[in-house]
Amino acid sequence: MYSRELLKGILKPIILKLLSENGKMYGYEMVQKVKELSGDKILIKEGSLYPALHALTSEGILQTESVSVGNRTRKYYKLTSSGNGQVQLALDELLDFAQTLKTIFEPKPVVS
Amino acid sequence: MIIDEGQVSFIRSYLMGNGVSNQSLQADLLDHFCCVVEEQMESGQSFDISFSKAVDRISPEGPEKIQKDLNYLLTIKKNIMLRKLVYMASYVSVLAVLTGLALRIPQILSADAAMLLVMAGMLLFSVSTVPYFFFDRYQKSIRELKSE
């Protein structure tokens, strides 16, 4: 399991990627999906997820849809058209960052 | 498995009693708690044990911490902008007062012009820095009162 500090900066791209592939999702579903996709290595904390979802909603990147489930309301999050436009940018930036980290941390062959 | 109305009400009361006043966040957390409790109950646990596990998993620092983090994220940009404006206004007002006085002494500015500049600086200071200072002090005192 990765530390909270490492996951902080990648929460937004994860949310955008999930929603771009799955259309609409609710919080618990996102946590479970990421856990499953990462082989239990990435556990999104609810305390980080909901503030991020609300902030993205107030920025106009996400919108919500409420559905009644049993005796409670379930809020589905989905990308707005502006949010759709940001997905590729966020993913490209993250992949570029990952590549840069690899360049820094990968052991270099010793030249004799 | 869907938990019953009484159990949902219990979780809702827990959230409301622990500082989650934002309706939208409350709906999110209520559904999330219900999902985790249902998941635990499906594996044979009682409601009480399932709820206790859900609390440990979702909000180990208390649900009010989630609302606090949410409020911080939603207001941080606005607060930074407000501070920038107040600090700039403070600088301009002090600059106006000092310039008025400094240019009056060697009589570069007339008495009326210097007075006008000083007055403008004082006015700007009193409508920007002073109210912000007291508002900030008020907020701090409320926070201290609540944490007692």
Question: What layout of secondary structure does this protein have?
Answer:
The complex is a heterodimer of chains A (112) and B (148).
Chain A: H1 4-8, H2 11-22, E1 24-25, H3 27-37, H4 46-58, E2 62-69, E3 72-79, H5 81-105
Antiparallel strand pairs in A: 1-3, 2-3
Helix pairs in contact in A: 2-5
Chain B: H1 5-17, H2 23-42, H3 47-58, H4 63-104, H5 111-127, H6 129-147
Question: Keywords for this structure?
Answer:
heterodimer, A: 112 residues, alpha+beta, 3-stranded antiparallel beta sheet, elongated, B: 148 residues, mainly alpha, 2 domains, 83% helix
Structure in words:
The complex is a heterodimer of chains A (112) and B (148). Chain A is α+β, with helices and mostly antiparallel strands and 112 residues long. In chain A, 59% of the residues lie in helices and 16% in strands. A 3-stranded antiparallel beta sheet of chain A has the order 1-3-2. The relative contact order of chain A is 0.16. Chain B has 148 residues and is an all-alpha fold. The model of chain B has no long low-confidence stretch (mean pLDDT 92). Classes of the chains: A alpha+beta (112), B mainly alpha (148).
Overall tally of structural domains of chain B: 2
How far from one another are the termini of chain A? Answer: 38 Å
Biggest sheet features of chain B: none
- The mean pLDDT of chain B is 92
Number of helical segments of chain B?
A: 6
* Cα shape of chain B: rod-shaped
Q: Regarding quaternary structure, how should these chains be classified?
A: heterodimer
Average pLDDT of chain A, rounded to a whole number, is 90
Number of β-strand runs of chain B: 0
- CA radius of gyration of chain A is 17 Å
Strand content of chain B: under 5%
Label the structural class of chain B. Answer: mainly alpha
